[in-house]
Design a protein that fits this description.
alpha/beta, GMP Synthetase, Chain A, domain 3, 2 domains, three-stranded mixed β-sheet, OsmC_Ohr_Peroxiredoxin, OsmC/Ohr_fam
Length: 159
């Protein structure tokens, strides 16, 4: 039997500047991403598409989702595999390529650059190898059609 999980969010446009969408430049791309019991995410489009640079855009949120899912599964695999992680930070990078008409595009790759600190030097090689196991179980990685690569940096906790 297959188990399913449902995820409900509301996306609410807050960018009507008074005349709705009567022209390409007459409205803001600002919106909020909402879910019951959670703080709103102030979002917009990418600044290249008339968005507010102070707000999250969908492309950043997609890259963040890939990085979060990788991290959470990686930490799980480390915990059950005897690798003690004491710090984890990822500087993820996504690339979107526009099609020739300029009217559309797609994410073409995400590169994860996790910086991981482990408790003991004996754990470094296993910690490095476990990154390669994440793609098979990460819900987000299994759901997208672009390559996700990882370039981990491993450190040993001092003292």
């Amino acid at each position: 039997m297959t188990t399913t999980h449902a995820y409900d969010v509301t996306v609410e446009w807050t960018g009507n500047l008074g005349s709705g969408t009567d022209g390409y430049r007459s409205f803001s791309r600002d919106h909020e991403v909402l879910a019951d019991g959670k703080a709103a995410i102030a979002a917009s489009s990418d600044p290249a598409f008339r968005g507010d640079p102070a707000r999250w855009n969908p492309e950043e949120l997609l890259v963040a989702s890939v990085a979060q899912c990788h991290m959470l599964w990686y930490l799980h695999l480390c915990a059950v595999g005897g690798v003690v992680v004491t710090e984890y930070e990822d500087h993820a990078h996504g690339v979107m390529a526009m099609d020739e008409s300029g009217g559309g595009g797609q994410i073409t790759e995400v590169v994860l650059r996790p910086e991981v600190t482990v408790a003991d030097a004996s754990m470094v090689e296993k910690a490095r190898a476990l990154h390669g196991d994440v793609h098979a179980v990460c819900f987000i990685a299994r759901s997208v059609n672009f390559p996700i690569t990882h370039v981990p940096v491993l450190r040993v906790q001092e003292g």
